[in-house]
Amino acid sequence: MYRFPRWTELQSDFPAIAEVFWNEYHRVNGFIPHEHGFVYAIHAVGSQYVKIGKSINPDRRLLQIAPQMPFRTRFIKVWRTSFMSMAESSLHKAYEKARTNGEWFELDILSVSVLLDEYTERRIRYCYADWLDICSAKASKAEWHLFHDRYNDGFSPILIGVESICRIQSIFDGITEQLTPGIPPDIKTAIDATYEQDFEYVSGEWGAQQ
User: Fold this and answer.
1) Secondary-structure breakdown of the chain: helix, strand, coil percentages, each rounded to the nearest 5
2) What is the DSSP letter of 208?
């Protein structure tokens, strides 16, 4: 049965992987760095050109772009995410070879179908979990394989989603408890409440036009 490791287990059994969490914890001050917004894909109708960008208000962004274009434009997809810039960068990197200018990419039918599939949507919405991939480069192959064997492939892409974000935060919380074991209950309650609000946002669905 699947069980995600505790921070103390990572420290004792998987020091290289623990180091990744430790460094990231200090980089983000112990909290998942949310940046709420949207990532969108705009199609230049009648062509293979697609613009991949980010915006707090994608509808307004389309209205800004449309008058500047010599062709009709429309959304083919809008994703809600709590990691807007990170998600946009992830898509830009994935389609770098197809980039024509700035945020415009020339995508064939297969590339567009991959862009619009469910797996891509989950990665965009919860892309902060992607940084865990660097663990495999930091840790030895033996340590990495042992980790996967013990925790049932706990960092596999199939687990990307709200559950992954919660598990990352649980490790961060373990580090916090280790560093500040005497944190007052009222402060801990306030921290937990703030995180629950972020969790609800990540779990929400976008109801505007897509």
Assistant:
1) 60, 15, 25
2) S
Q: Is 14 helix (H, G, I), strand (E, B) or coil?
A: coil
| DSSP letter assigned to residue 48 | S
Quick one: which of 46, 39, 45, 53 has its CA closest to 101? 53
One-letter amino acid of 207: G
* Whether residue 25 sits in one domain with residue 70: no
Same domain, 28 and 42: no
Judgement on whether residues 26 and 69 belong to the same structural domain of the protein: no
| pTM of the predicted model as reported, rounded to 2 decimal places | 0.70
Distance linking the first and last C-alpha atoms of the chain: 38
Per residue in 158-205, pLDDT (tens digit) is: 344 566 777 788 889 899 988 887 666 666 666 556 555 544 444 444
Give the DSSP H/E element, type plus range, for residue 140.
none
Which are the contacts of 150, defined by CB distance < 8 A and separation ≥ 6?
5, 13
Biggest alpha carbon–alpha carbon distance for the chain? 62
